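Usage example:
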Amino acid sequence: MTELTHAADLVAERCRLKKALLDVNPELTQTADIVDSVGERAVVRRTVYVYEAPVRLWHWVNALAMVTLFVTGYLIASPPSSPTGEASAHFQMGYIRFIHFTAGQILAVAMLGRIYWAFVGNSHARQLFYIPFWKGEFWRGALLEARWYAFLEKYPQQYIGHNPLAHLSMFLMSTLGTIFMICTGFALYSEGEGRASWLSHAFGWVFWLFPNSQQVHTLHHLGMWVLVCFTFIHVYAAIREDIMSRQSMISAMISGERQFRDEV
Amino acid sequence: MSATETFYEVIRRQGVTRRSFTKFCSLTAASMGLGATGASNVAHALETNPRVPVIWMHGLECTCCSESFIRSAHPLVKDVVLSMISLDYDDTLMAAAGHQAEAILAETKEKYKGKYILAVEGNPPLNEGGMFCIDGGRPFVERLKWMAQDAAAVIAWGACASWGCVQAAKPNPTQAVPIDKVITDKPIIKVPGCPPIAEVMTGVVTFITTFGRLPELDRQGRPQMFYSQRIHDKCYRRPHFDAGQFVEQWDDQNAREGKCLYKMGCRGPTTYNACSTVRWNNGVSFPIQSGHGCIGCSEDGFWDNGPFYERLSNIHQFGVESNADRIGVAAAATVGVAVAAHAAITALSRVAVKRDDKAPPAVK
Ligand code: HEM
Ligand code: HEM
Ligand code: SF4
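Running the assembly step on the lines above writes:
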């Protein structure tokens, strides 16, 4: 990079850089302008505002609710050992189920909010809900990512939103998985609410598909393990890409801004 | 016995007092949740309606429904049911046999066209043209369809007729199917259970004969009044469930103290039936009260959702016997190991390759 000594030159150069970047990608709006007292320049890095606040809020509420659901759901099927004494003195299973149902309701309401945001939010907010199935570029990207994970590619790709492989697994495992868990979960919940409840009217169709509630329990339970597997891979991939792909991941889900660590 | 006699005439002839009759009407009305005027409606109907002819056919089954039915607890109920309806054909109970019995079917079909009720115990196997169940010289499935043609309504007794039960359990070599797979143009009321509770059976019959229509059914075709709640919803051990106090092993202290049987595989939480309220044998007991978990006998495919003594059902799709947790833990462990290995390889390759190499050559 050219050595810039003159302050005016510095400013001019920065403007030129910004403009060049904007030409390349109009979404790239910010570059770092920090200069310290000694005149040493901070590295100019591109950041893009990707995840709007509602998306970030949803993400962490969802992650929290889901982990709670994992733990309590597992305990519903395999309860901890029995407390002794009078039944009236305990509510162990009651609390476990209460927490599960509360987290379940939060998860469901959050999902509704997230779906709403897919309509009004930016284009990245929509990624969760569809697969650009007919776009060859998407599948090529997914293949490239897969090869990158298989250590067959030397250089990782960078994406403003989700990378195609992540996009695919988020849609299939997380979005569809969560919707599946909400439908089966509320169908099970409606059994306690009774036949006349609105929940039973709204989710009773699950029992058309699986007439025996025990089957619904089994599927709801299997669904949990699908999501557990997703979470393992997801968290690992987030951390790995954060380190490996010259772009911020985890902080992007906190601040909303994705920073690309290529020096300009 | 002519089917045009009313029920009231029959029981009076049999020596049942008017007083017992009104008592029966009130009890019946109460058990069906009919409200204040229910009893007099029931009484009026039974005094004036002609008795309904019933044809009771048996397919692949074990006769436990009949066994349950004839044990209907309230002594009067037994009389009632057998007097209330005109049970014109039931090959297990009837005196007639052979051609004489067969003639009744044809006669009823013709004489009471569109008026009789077809009660079916058991189900038809379809494999090999129905040859696995021959009844009166013909495959049962044919006779069933034939008798269903002119029936007013069909009652599916028990898990067999309703869902298929054990003979339809995997791998179902005879291809036994619930009756609604072969009778598609008639109202069918399902009264599942293996067997169904006697009072539930007689209650259903009483309702139909009294009101001349089927009771309100749920989305699976079962009468709401007996199948709208789970065993678990009304189980007297439920406080122990909520407290988290479970039988951990057969014969442990908790078993003796009557704690909840959930961990022993009780299917009460997923089973719709009236056992925990109506109970069995004149309200004496029901499985859970006797210390054994519910096996879910009134549910669709209950044989394929075993084992009966484990909370989680087996999943057979994966070849070996497994359940959700075994599959899930294996999958999650595989993913965990794969992630760890991947991370290790990643770390090693980063040591080998210089960091800057991860950036593609700059495009100038
Ligand atoms: C049960 C737990 C979790 C679930 C179900 C989950 C699900 C998701 C979903 C659906 C997205 C897409 C967000 C959107 O487009 O709106 C996402 C993104 C993301 N999640 Fe999670 N998440 C979970 C836990 C975590 C955790 C613990 C971390 C942190 C280590 C994390 C880090 C991220 C990051 C960095 C992204 C952005 C990925 C990208 O930029 O392409 N997630 N997550
Ligand atoms: C990621 C989301 C979820 C996970 C991982 C999860 C997990 C589980 C698990 C493992 C079980 C035990 C199943 C069994 O009997 O073997 C369960 C039961 C249940 N879940 Fe969920 N669940 C989730 C979402 C929900 C939601 C959204 C609801 C709706 C309120 C819900 C309601 C229920 C109910 C009613 C039961 C049955 C409780 C009982 O039988 O006492 N779940 N869940
Ligand atoms: S014994 Fe069975 S039905 Fe009764 S509370 Fe326990 S799990 Fe529910």
